[in-house]
Specification:
The chain is built from seven helices and two strands; from the N terminus they run αααααββαα. By secondary structure, it is mostly helical. The protein has a two-stranded antiparallel ribbon. The longest helix is centred in the C-terminal third of the chain and has 25 residues.
Length: about 180
């Protein structure tokens, strides 16, 4: 197994475990607290959690198009069409939580299935503005994880504003 494959699997492990921590903490909030606009890019804890799930499913759809035979992506809930990166997939927090776990399972299986040749290959897709993009697949996969991390950082701040500490957020604390 190559370092890139191990790196992507480590990102998937971090993603799953840190998401579980965030959702457990978010479950202790009231519905009003979760949906309160706190001035973040997507406003609330709920909207930010929803955005991360939406973006993950958009990226997974792009990977499914690039690698149509990948078993991990065959029956996954993916997003092919959306009107905005603010689209709400799930208004109900319990359903959002369940779907997060299901998507994290898909992401884990996807990274387990990725080959060195796929990661080294070229990824071609259309971005949300319809522009054609291409770059090494490992860059696209790393971007999906980096995007999650970026918004989870925002969630850490939002939860802190609501009086909750998410604890250690460092990648190395989850994979070593």
């Amino acid at each position: 197994m190559t370092a890139h494959q191990q790196q992507m699997q480590g990102f998937a492990k971090y993603n799953r475990e840190f998401n579980a921590r965030l959702y457990k903490l978010a479950a202790t909030l009231t519905e009003d607290e979760r949906k309160k606009d706190l001035g973040a890019f997507f406003g609330s804890v709920h909207a930010t959690l929803n955005h991360i799930l939406l973006a993950d499913r958009i990226w997974l759809d792009r990977f499914a198009t690039a690698f149509p035979t990948m078993a991990a992506l065959q029956r996954a809930d993916l997003v092919q069409q959306f009107s905005s990166l603010r689209d709400e997939l799930y208004a109900n927090f319990t359903e959002l939580s369940e779907q997060r776990v299901a998507t994290d399972d898909v992401i884990t299986r996807f990274t387990d299935e990725l080959t060195a040749a796929q990661l080294a290959g070229t990824m071609r897709y259309s971005n949300s503005q319809g522009q054609q993009r291409q770059h090494p697949t490992w860059v696209a996969v790393a971007h999906m994880f980096n995007h999650q991390t970026h918004h989870r950082g925002q969630l850490s701040t939002l939860l802190h504003q609501l009086g909750h500490d998410v604890g250690v957020t460092d990648f190395v604390a989850y994979v070593t």
